[in-house]
Amino acid sequence: MTLSTHQDAIGVLEAKLETGLDSNRVDMTEFTMLLNEAHAKASRIRTTLQRKQEALGVDARLDLQRLTNNAFLRLRMNARALKQRIRDRLRQRKFELERLECAYRVSTNGEYMLYGVQHEC
């Protein structure tokens, strides 16, 4: 997750804490603990970003600034991230279906149960 995503999540948690939403599901100490963890994570990300930017030289900082404002590169990276998420979901779905098919085969083949043979899924 990026720093802006963490800051948005912190804003949502603070708004819920102020309005008292979800107080019946989660006690306030646990909610405050979640908020403190989110603040700590955002702080760690912020310091890591600062440290890495300070490690860059002057030319590299200018290149970084130019690359972050490049619309083509931004679209390309967003497309790549989307493609990776789709692949991960398909891979996950494939393994879910394999387990389901295996369980179905085992349940329909009664001889496995009768003869004590282990199924090979």
List the defining traits of the structure above:
flat, 121 residues, single chain, 2 domains, mainly alpha
Give an account of the 3D structure.
- The chain is mostly helical.
- The chain folds into 2 domains: 1-57; 70-121.
- Helices cover 83% and strands 0% of the residues.
- Helix 1 packs antiparallel against helix 2 (28-55).
- The mean pLDDT is 81.
Give a brief description.
By secondary structure, the chain is mostly helical.
Give the helices and strands, then pairings.
Blueprint: H1 3-19, H2 28-55, H3 58-68, H4 71-108, H5 110-115
Helix pairs in contact: 1-2
- Structural class computed from helices and strand pairing: mainly alpha
Structural domain count: 2
Major sheet summary line: none
Average the pLDDT over all residues and give the rounded result: 81
Helix content: over 70%
Q: What string, H for helix and E for strand, traces the elements in order? A: HHHHH
* Unreliable sequence segments: none
| Euclidean distance between termini CA atoms | 36 Å
General shape: flat
Number of helices: 5
Task: Let me know the number of strands.
Answer: 0
Oligomer: single chain
Which band does the percent of strand residues land in? under 5%
How much is the radius of gyration in Å? 25 Å
